[in-house]
Amino acid sequence: MPPPRPAPPPAAPVPPPVPVPHSTRTGPPPPSRPQPVPRRQPSVSAPTWVQAGATSSVAGRSLLGGMLYIGKLSRGDAVPGRNVEVIDPTLPIDWRKPDFTGRDMDYWPAYHSITPRSRAAYLLWLEGGRWAPDAYIGYVFLYFYGLERRALVDAQQDPAARADVPHILGEVARLLTVYGGNSSFRQYATALQQVLRALISRGEGPPPDPAEHDKWPPPLTLRFGIGRFAAEGRPVPVDWAWSWAMLHPEIYPRTPATRCPDEFRALFTTRYQTRYADGLRVRPLKSRVELSYRPASGGLTSTTWHSDVSDVLTAAAPTKALKALVESCANDLDAYSRLIGRQPEATGTLPALALLPDELFTSDLAGLRPVRELVERTLPADVPRARFEMSDLVALWPAKASGKFAKADVVGLAQLLDKFGVGVEPDVRLGGPVQSAGPAVLFRITAAQSATATPEYTAATTLLHLAAVVSAADDDVSTAERDHLVSHLESSLHLTPGERIRLTAHLDWLLASKLKLTGLTKRLGGLTDAQRAHVAEFATAIAAVDGVVSPGEVDTLRKIYKLLGQEPDSVYTELHALTAASTRPAPATDPVVVVPADTGPTGYLIPPPPKPEPPVGAVRLDPALVEAKMRESAAVAALLADVFDEPEESAPRPPAPVVAVDLVGSLDAAHSTLLRELATRSSWSRADFDALCAEAGLLPEGALDVLNEAAVEAADEPVVEDDGDQFVINDYAMGELLA
């Protein structure tokens, strides 16, 4: 202080000069000369404070608004470093050429020591309302000195001065809106503002708004408020916890907090209230909140107040709890934040809503209405699952310029339906095809559903595909037959409740689709000859699960045998094995009843209805033998699970050469290398940036977030700014990172 001098405003009108009386001698009068002030001044009282809103007069100028010290200083009081803010109306003022640029001002100005030209410019600024944006900042400071003295010195002893503190706080806030662009003034005025707010509120009232404060240091009102909750044993309300977390010097909420602030705060609020009910409770500590202030005025000394409020703002336990909560919110909003960062126009669309955490997803969101109506229409409340046309759902998804419905879109739709408590089959996340049209199945999720397929579930779907193909060969799959197949696979493969629900829906989709054997070729291609024979035998048992194999099922089995590299005619051999023992009784394993006791009522029993005759050409099989074969499904599933496992590499890869990398701050080697490469140019095209990330083995969007988060920590600014078609490098942030 003071900063560079601004250009002067238009000159104020100069008062007319004071004429000098004529002498009594003869001859023409001497030419008149303007005088700075009259030779004689009326008596002026000692310096006093002019109340806020009052009007005072100095040298014929009306100073509106008050909040000034005006009065005559004695010689002992008008010394360097004392009473610098007092306007002494007896001192000379040069109205002819006011020093609007502040050229005559000292670094530590005092009204009694500045030049008459500077006094004129200062009084004209006061008379003009103290708002001229191009005023020399030294005059603003001179006025600010008086506010400091009244609030920090007089208010310690004088009740009337303490009553002025709220008015002074309001005036400091007003000055910041006009002159806050000056870094020196902003620093002093912001510090005084915090101290005054703390002195006034003492932790009562609403919490400080994080958008209006810096966390270096945190606002004193926040320290007072949290300290009072601890001292009084009260839980910290959610609005105070939010300010605490956002202004905590050791908590950094990352990009989602700034890119989607409304969603971030809503998620924080919901989780805080869920986790802590009434609020987080904090134990008081021995340390106390201190208020310290270094005045801008050269006539005042630094001041420190010791309060009786416990300083718990950075206590270890609550800091850990708040940091974990903020981190969980940032993690769960990360995918949503990345999408909005790439496509700001996606806000409110289905792809964006599908990425919202469950706590923020409510079915009454405006963009969800079409999907909600489709679900309610297709799947009434009393229906566990139902078929529908996939294209009806895909039509609600935003179309891409390419017109291609990609895997990411299918995943997004499945995630969206999950939030409605509804699953869909086929589901690409569990091995289903990317399907934009054709039959599909919606089902209600009544148990935990996994977004990935376990080996057991993958094997079950493959066996089910085999079963569905065989069972549908005669175009007649009864409900009992279908349920028997599913229940057997569920129990023998030990599927979870969620997998069992999905498996039933998967079978519905298979039966509604045009089933083909070719879809199994790739999955079964890795089996050995013995394993293929085992699967073929099991397929035969599936066909015979109802005790009868129709001619159509025999034809399908022949195709399956051929697919598995087996001799098609061996189907008949396997079927014969399932019927050969049916003509003779199985050996007894329990005591045999020779003559049953005649203890029942006399009369004749009504014979059971005859079993329906099998179709012409169908083969009736022994149910016991078929069931014995079906019990081998777990073994078949196990060998199929091996097929789906990733193959191990035959030989270990040689280790990559170790390259020494000069790490940047907390960044790892890959991100440090990427950052140094980015520093070589002022901007990068999106294609070039993606290529750099590929060379470093990084995903572009993730790398961008990591670099910018590190830059914000180091310089409070991102280092790479997305400018549409290119990425622009922030030289300041880059310099801070590489310093």
Tag the structure with descriptive keywords:
739 residues; mainly alpha; elongated
Write the layout of secondary structure elements.
Layout: E1 48-50, E2 56-58, E3 61-63, E4 68-70, H1 116-127, H2 137-152, H3 159-179, H4 183-201, H5 220-231, H6 238-247, H7 255-259, H8 261-276, E5 288-293, E6 303-310, H9 316-332, H10 334-342, H11 350-353, H12 369-378, E7 385-389, H13 390-394, H14 407-419, E8 422-425, E9 439-444, H15 455-471, H16 479-493, H17 497-512, H18 521-524, H19 529-543, E10 548-549, H20 551-563, H21 570-579, E11 619-620, H22 623-630, H23 633-644, H24 669-678, E12 683-685, H25 686-696, H26 700-715, E13 720-722, E14 726-729, H27 731-738
Antiparallel strand pairs: 1-4, 2-3, 5-6, 7-9, 8-9, 10-11, 12-14, 13-14
Find the structural class using helix and strand composition.
mainly alpha
In spatial order, strands of the major sheet run 7-9-8
Classify the beta-strand content into a percent band: 5-15%
- The radius of gyration over CA amounts to 43 Å
Q: What is the residue-mean pLDDT, rounded to a whole number?
A: 82
Describe the structure.
With 739 residues, the chain is mainly α. It is built from 27 helices and 14 strands. It has a 3-stranded antiparallel sheet with strand order 7-9-8. A 3-stranded antiparallel sheet has the order 12-14-13. The protein has a two-stranded antiparallel ribbon with strand order 1-4. A hairpin with a 2-residue loop joins strand 2 and strand 3. The longest helix has 21 residues, at 159-179. The chain is elongated. Mean pLDDT is 82; it is low at 1-42 and 644-658.
